[in-house]
Design a protein that fits this description.
Blueprint (H helix, E strand, L loop, with lengths): L1 E3 L8 H8 L23 E4 L6 H15 L8 E3 L6 H8 L6 E6 H9 L10 E16 L7 H11 L4 E4 L5 H12 L4 H7 L1 E4 L3 H9 L5 E5 H10 L2 E6 L21 E11 L5 H16 L1 H10 L2 E6 H21 L5
Parallel strand pairs: 1-10, 2-3, 2-4, 6-7, 6-8
Antiparallel strand pairs: 4-10, 5-8, 5-9, 5-10, 5-11
Helix pairs in contact: 4-12
């Protein structure tokens, strides 16, 4: 089975919590020379996308809960959208405030490659992976497509006449569309010729295109489309998880629809590249406190996000592996040379 960017699940919750403990950050990179963590009272959160999408939802949830739980005093959110998050990534590269966190995820991994971005995720300080979420393929409520096969067959037959919208070029949504066409028998060059993909810098833009019948179909995280699916203004064709999604239990998986593809979209946090070991540890401690709170557990359930917590060196290893996997997949489906 094709699997990309699946969460590496810890053997037990205890092991994860042990690696995240603010009193023992050795597993998360406590820093050379035993640098003491510096207290974080004011934190800035960068969302590398326009308002309305999954990154924005994540960043604002983090901000609200960090202050509500009195983990920090302030945590303002700044949106810096564009180019699949690589504009925000460039801003983070120049950020001088060590107490800064930028929301990131699978979308950015692909965007760095497709945009040949000068600033790369490897040049930042990975702090934590927080969540994973399946994607969902939707169409307007009055669409003639009733199954995923209807949609994929039409793209194969009519190519550019069928428009698919989602997040940034090279991101999770774009990758999923390419994988579906590859599973349908198209090669890399044919995928590029047939797939008319309309990228967006924010989830709200994709929603507007679908609701306005200005796109044949859309792909995004469940959280961005679920309210419209529940309201009946969008029709869900399939979800990208291995099992049915908890908040869309009646929607079939892509594998159940006959395409051997499983893809989950992870989200996490990066810090500037040149922060001290103490500041890195302090940020890990802040995020760990958030993760361990009952309020965050409730937020995960409300949003339909799965807990995928990794910090420090474990997250860095995951990120390195994910970058390699995504680059290979983007090459195979013709999105990068």
């Amino acid at each position: 089975m094709r699997r990309l960017a699946l969460v590496i699940v810890a053997a037990t919750a205890a092991l994860t919590l042990a690696s995240c403990s603010s009193t023992d950050t050795g597993g998360s990179g406590s820093g050379e020379g035993g640098a003491e963590a510096t207290a974080v009272t004011d934190l800035q959160i960068i969302v590398p996308a326009e308002p309305g999408g999954g990154w924005d939802q994540t960043g604002r949830s983090i901000s609200q809960l960090l202050t509500a739980e009195e983990i920090v005093d302030t945590a303002p959110v700044t949106n810096i959208g564009g180019a699949g998050g690589t504009v925000g990534l460039a801003s983070l590269a120049n950020e001088k405030d060590p107490h800064s966190l930028m929301v990131t995820g699978l979308v950015m991994v692909g965007a760095v490659e497709t945009n040949a971005a000068q600033n790369r995720m490897e040049d930042t300080t990975p702090i934590a992976r927080l969540t994973e979420e399946p994607l969902v393929v939707v169409v307007p409520a009055d669409s003639d497509y009733d199954t995923l096969e209807d949609l994929v067959d039409d793209i194969v037959e009519n190519g550019q006449d069928v428009t698919v919208t989602g997040g940034s070029a090279g991101g999770a949504d774009h990758i999923l569309a390419g994988l579906l066409l590859e599973e349908a028998g198209l090669t890399g060059a044919e995928i590029g010729e047939n797939l008319n993909y309309i990228p967006n810098s924010g989830g709200g833009e994709a929603v507007a295109l679908i609701l306005g019948n200005n796109a044949s179909a859309g792909i995004s995280g469940i959280g961005e489309f679920v309210e419209h699916i529940d309201a009946g203004t969008m029709k869900a064709l399939a979800v990208s998880s291995a099992e049915p999604a908890a908040n869309l239990p009646d929607v079939p998986t892509i594998t159940e629809e006959g395409y051997d593809v499983v893809l989950t979209n992870w989200r996490g946090l990066l810090a500037p590249s040149d922060i001290s070991d103490g500041d890195r540890d302090a940020l890990i401690d802040v995020v760990t406190q958030l993760h361990d709170s009952e309020a965050w557990t409730a937020e995960l359930e409300t949003r339909g996000w799965a807990d995928a917590f990794l910090v420090g060196d474990e997250f860095t290893s995951f990120l390195d592996e994910n970058i390699a996997e995504v680059t290979t997949t983007l090459t195979n489906i013709g999105l990068v040379g």
